């Protein structure tokens, strides 16, 4: 039996939204994949995690590529740092998945790591890009 604490969905704070192109929906998609895994936990364990995490890596990689293309097109000076950050995040995801494969399941701890240490970090790094976009007048002013 899974308790209610483990069933709580992950969500980004509103201040982490970029409001440009389809960056926010891509972030939400990644969170939805993790939340779908949370909803499927049975007694705190999800044994059938390979497919959702294959999709997670596929979507994360596509997000990174899309974002780097936007940065390149807009002449963002932080692109090199950001691309290195993306590569580091992908390595961290690969290590997380390798650990889950070794133990044979994913639990709430691994899902928290996926959200807090990976997704949250990705989105937090994107806030620097949001400042650049704001400076160009490309995102709506927040009230």
Structural features, described:
- There is one protein chain.
- With 143 residues, the protein is mainly alpha-helical.
- The chain has one domain (25-134): Up-down Bundle (Four Helix Bundle (Hemerythrin (Met), subunit A)), CATH 1.20.120.
- It is 69% helix and 3% strand.
- It is elongated.
How many individual β-strands?
2
* Number of contiguous helices: 5
Alpha carbon gyration radius = 16 Å
Determine the fraction of residues in helical runs and give it as a percent range: 55-70%
The first-to-last residue Cα distance is 44 Å
How would you sum up this structure in a few lines?
With 143 residues, the chain is mainly α. Helix content is 69%, strand content 3%.
Q: What is this structure's SSE topology?
A:
Elements lengths: L3 H4 L15 H17 L5 E2 L3 H25 L4 H25 L2 E2 H28 L8
Antiparallel strand pairs: 1-2
List keywords for this structure.
143 residues; mainly alpha; Four Helix Bundle (Hemerythrin (Met), subunit A); two-stranded antiparallel ribbon; 2 strands; disordered N terminus
């Amino acid at each position: 039996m899974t308790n209610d604490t483990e069933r709580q969905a992950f969500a980004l704070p509103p201040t982490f939204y970029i409001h440009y192109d389809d960056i926010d929906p891509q972030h939400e998609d990644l969170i939805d994949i993790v939340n779908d895994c949370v909803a499927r936990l049975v007694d705190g364990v999800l044994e059938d995690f390979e497919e959702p995490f294959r999709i997670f890596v596929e979507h994360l990689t596509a997000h990174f590529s899309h974002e780097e293309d936007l940065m390149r097109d807009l002449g963002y000076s932080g692109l090199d740092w950001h691309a290195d950050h993306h590569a580091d995040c992908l390595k961290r995801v690969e290590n997380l998945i390798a650990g889950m494969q070794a133990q044979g399941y994913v639990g709430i701890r691994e899902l928290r790591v996926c959200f807090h240490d990976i997704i949250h970090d990705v989105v937090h790094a994107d806030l620097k890009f949001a400042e650049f976009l704001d400076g160009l007048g490309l995102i709506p002013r927040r009230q």
